[in-house]
Design a protein that fits this description.
- It is a single chain.
- This protein is α+β, with helices and mostly antiparallel strands.
- The chain has one domain.
- It is globular and about 30 Å long.
- It starts with a strand and ends with a helix.
């Protein structure tokens, strides 16, 4: 990842329906150790853990956003 985070789109929330919303964009937080195990770290809908939670990477796809959208999402409370 080029920054501390990138943005990913949830495409599957099976077993995590209360924590993730299909079609929602989440910030992917940097966690190289988790990525070695095909996991991603995101701040989910619960938002009680600022360091985020781990989820299977297969539940998300990476997306590229225009800079204005990236800045708006970075400033939003999630």
């Amino acid at each position: 990842m080029d920054n501390m985070y990138e943005f990913i789109l949830c495409i599957d929330n099976d077993d995590y329906k209360a924590s993730l919303i299909v079609g929602k964009v989440y910030q992917r937080l940097s966690d190289p150790k988790a990525e070695e195990h095909s996991l991603v770290r995101v701040v989910d809908e619960d938002q009680t853990e600022p360091e985020g939670y781990l989820y299977p990477a297969s539940m998300f796809v990476s997306i590229e956003l225009p800079e204005v959208a990236r800045q708006a999402l970075m400033m939003s409370p999630a």
